Each structure stands twice: as C-alpha cells, then as structure tokens.
Amino acid sequence: METLTKEIQNNITPSDALKRLKEGNKRYVNNSMNARDLTEQVKITSAGQAPFAVVLGCIDSRAPLELVFDQGVGDIFGARVAGNIVNEDILGSMEYSCKVAGSKLVVVMGHTKCGAVTAACQGVELGNITPLLDKIKPAVKAIGGEMTPQNIETVAIKNVGLTIERIRKESAILNDMEQNGEIMIVGASYSVETGEVTFL
User: Helix 172-179 vs helix 149-170: angle between axes, to the nearest 10 degrees?
Assistant: First the structure.
C-alpha cells in the first residue's frame, strides 16, 4: 500500500477522500484489509504527514478509526471524544487538519449502542461527564419522547447532524472551505454489530 505524500494528497478531491473511506470500510467488513508494512510507513511519515481526511469519532473501544476504514499510518487524522461532540479544541484540531495540513474531508462518526448518548438520554450527571453530556442534550431534546432503545439510536444519529451544524456555525474556516469546494463535511454511523459504516 502506498504511503500518502503531499503530492498524492494534493491530487485527492473531497469525493475521492470519501470513496477511499467507503472502500476501506468495505474491506474491513469483508475481512480483506490491505497488507501494510506499518514499520515502513512509520519511517516514511517521520519526515512529514499528508492525511486525506479527519475523522471525529467516539472513544468507544469498538470503533477504532484506522481499523474501521482500513487506513495506515499517516492516512487520516483521528479525533476521539465520548459522544463525538465538538468543542473549541476539536474545532481547532479540525481546522489544522484541513487548512494547514491539507485534508480534504471531515467525517463526524457516531455509532450504535453509544454509552455517552445513552447516558445523555438517561440524564446522567457525574463530575466532568455532566458538561460533556450537555453537548448531546440538544439531540435528546430534538427527538423527545420516551427514550426507548430505538429512540436512543435516533438520538445518536441526530447528534451527528447537530455536531456537523456546530462545525459549520462555529468554524468560519471549515465552513468557508466547504463552501469553496475545498473540503466536504459528512456524517456517518458505525454499527458495533456489523462493523459497517453508513454515511448519512
């Protein structure tokens, strides 16, 4: 497998980047992942990096970003926080990924059976978890009703959409880049049952 260089990254369009992730997830689901010399990739990327995408995912141990998308060292930026929410630090990291380092795609990926979303739906309050869950509450409120297992899954999807709205609203840099066609910002949901990523 090729290791990404600046030249390769420059020739990748946002649509190409999305296609790469979709194809990688298909390989992951089919257990036909690309063979890679990770040690060699470490050596090559030590001189610099040119990831084609930045993925914001949850810290859930069942959803490891590089594995889920069958990517190697230097291929994607990964940001992980419970409930795949954004704050100033995550936004700054995404802005660096795209504006400075040249990534072409921003993915916000939620997942099924998310503990953070479930906790937000159940009104859990505990230490620093409370303000984190507060960032998921708008999705809980938007769905409303009894928090059945199905409604909790619907909240998880809604949370992805609201997170994307926040990115566009709170990052003029990323919003402008998207408007100019330099990047795409998309949502996704990972199934912990099947390993499949559904792009929203």
Answer: 90
